Write the structure tokens for this entry.
Amino acid sequence: MVALTLLVMASAFPFYWAIVSSFTPESRLFQSPPLFPADLVLDHYRTLFNERNFWVPVRNSLIVAGTTTAFCVAIGGLCAYALARLEFRGKSLLLGVILAVGMFPQISVVSPLYLVLRQLRLINTYPGLILPYLTFAMPLTIWLLVGFFRQLPAELEEAAMVDGASRLRAFREVIVPLALPGLATTAILTFVYSWNEFLFALSFTLGPERQTVPVAIALFRGQYQVPWGQILAAAIVATAPVTLLVLAFQRRIVQGLTAGAVKG
């Protein structure tokens, strides 16, 4: 227990130090601010939102990551259910291809994707970010959900289909409610992946009006100065939505909805 407590404290301390530093004046950032500072200021946050208009990249990240997650869970859920339940030729090969696409290095496809998006006039647009995100977030979603659906007993939807429900209705009304912990976990992982993505967001945006949070923070640095206070404040703001998302779905993740679903 002591070791676990020390490990948690060691893991949480950098985040705590970033919070304290984001409220510390710029002149004192390199003077080892105390663990419990007495004078906290909001200068970095004021500059962040009043001068840099940081709400714009936050809004962009929420739109892009949220839309990508919604598409991945909705479409990937159906694909994963088909791969988990239906028997057809080439299923194992298809799963292997999906895994290969998910493991493909992003840097190798940036140039061809840029040419395609430029031809479609999607550079510096929301669809121009969401579509590339789907190419790597969708395989992750499918692989995770295939494992979740395989753990659910097939007798549940079979009983529903015996009572007259179609397979799609059995999936919607029987499987989806039972798979909510898996869907919530997958949605969180997909959202975090899309929220933190940097390479595509940097390559397919041209100005601050479509930049996401990681790109905006990376471009804070000037030629002769690094505004560490603003960077730390932006990092705290960027971490807040992900933290709230995890806390909101924590109960769904740990809840065992399948317990007692099938009688012995």
Q: What stands out?
A: The chain has one domain: 15-28+41-254. Residues 55-85 form the longest helix (31 residues). The chain has a mean pLDDT of 84. Residues 15-28+41-254 form a domain with the MetI-like fold fold (CATH 1.10.3720.10).
